[in-house]
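---------- Forwarded message ----------

FYI, see the SVOP like record below. Original note from H. follows.
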Amino acid sequence: HSEMPAVLGKVLLSQLLQLGNRGPQRQKTFTVEEAVETIGFGRFHIALFLIMGSTGVVEAMEIMLIAVVSPLIRCEWQLNDWQVALVTTMVFFGYMIFSILFGLLADRYGRWKILLISFLWGAYFSLLTSFSPSYIWFVFLRAMVGCGVSGHAQGYCLLYCSLLIIGLASVVNPTIGWRWLIRIASIPGIILILAFKFIPESARYNVSTGNNKAAIATLERIAKINRSVMPEGILVEPVHERRGRFRDLLDSKYLRTTLQIWIIWLGISFAYYGVILASAELLERDMVCSLQTAAAAKELGDDSEESRSPCHCRLFAPSDYRIMIISTIGEIALNPLNILSINFLGRRLSLSITMGCTALFFLFLNICTTSTGLIGFLFMLRALVAANFNTIYIYTAEVYPTTMRALGMGTSGSLCRIGAMVAPFIAQVLMSASFLGALCLFSGMCAVCAISAFTLPIETKGRALQVCNSSFLTQLQLRPHEKMILT
C-alpha cells in the first residue's frame, strides 16, 4: 500500500506526457479540390458535360453559319467582295474583344451570371439577325453575336456543327431562305437558356469571395446528385499560387518559344478559316475546271439582271453542299495518324510535317482538276489543318509551367482570332482578284509555320509537365537543394 501513490503518480505522469506529446488536436479541413475528389465523378458531371458541350455547339454553329449564308446575302444586297469578308471579320473581332471583357467580369461578378448573360446576348442578337433590313444592320448584329458567343465554353465541335449547318443549309436555303436558316440555328441557344437552372455557381469562385456557405451548398448538391458524400471538416480556401504574368512569357527562357508559338497559332487559324472560306468561294465562283464549262454554258443562255450584276451572284447547287460535307469529314480523317505521329516523332517534327503538307495542298488547289479531285484536295486540307490545331494545342499546354499555362494558352488564343479576322479578306477578296496569289499567301504562311515548328527550342515529348519556372524559384529564395527538389 505504501508503494501505491508512487505507482499511480508514475501512471498519471506517463499519461500527461503522452497528452503533451500529442499536442492540441487540429480540426479537420478540406478545400474545394479535395471535396471534388471525394465526391467523385457521377451524374452531375455527365449532365454538366452535355450542357456545356452544347454551348460549344451553339458557338460553332453561329461562327460557321456565315460560310453558307454569304452567297445569299451577296445576291440579296448586291455586295462587293470586301463587304462579304467584313461580316466574318467583325464576328471574330467581337469575339476577341468581349472574351477579354467577359473574363474580367466573370472574376468580379461570378461565372454563372456572365455565362447566362452571354447566352441571352448571343441568342437575342442571333435571332435579330434574321430580321436585318440592310447590310449595315446585318454586320452590326453578327458582330454582336460574336460578342455573345465569346462568353460560352469553347468546345472542339466545329466539325459536327459544320456538318449540321451545311446539311440544314442544303434544305433550308433553297426553300424558305437564309433568314429561316439563322432562326433555326438560334433554337439550340434558346433551349439551352432553360438548362441554366441546373448549372450552379462555381464553388471555387464562392470560396474566393468568402462565400463559403454558398460553396458548401453547391458541393452538397453535387454530392446528392452523384449519390456520394462530402468530406469531413471545415471548407477552407487553399493557398493561392503565384499567377503567371505577361512578362513571364517574354522571359529569356521562353522568349523564343513564345514568339514562335504565336506565329504558329496565328498561321494555323489563318489557314483553317482560310480553307473553309476558300472552299465556299471555289464552289460559288465555279473556279473548278470541270464546273467552269457548265457554268459558262448556263450564262450564255441566261440574260437576267442577276447574271449581268457587277457583284458576283451564284447560289450553291446541291452538288456544292455534298462537296462541302465530304471535305468537312476530313477533319477527323488524320486523327489516329496524328496521335501516333506526335507520340513517336515528337510534337515539333509532327507539326512541321503537317504544316508543310498543308502548304503543298493549298498550291494543289490551283491544279485544273475534276470535282472529284477538288473533293480530295479539300478533304486533305481539312484533315491537315485539324491535325495542326491538335498538335499545337498539346504542345502549348505542355511547354509552359503551371503558373504560366493558362496565360500562354490565352495569349495564343488571341493570336488565333487575329488570324481568323484576316483570313476572309484573303479567301474572299484577294482570291477573286488573284486566285494563285491568294493560294500562295496561304501556302507561304503555312511554310513559315512549318519552319517555326521545326526550329522550336523545346521538345515536350516524354517531358514531365513543368510545375513552376526558374524566375519563380528565384523569387522564393530557396536553398539550392530545395530548388532542385521542386524542379
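H. also flagged this: The beta strands are 29-30, 234-235.
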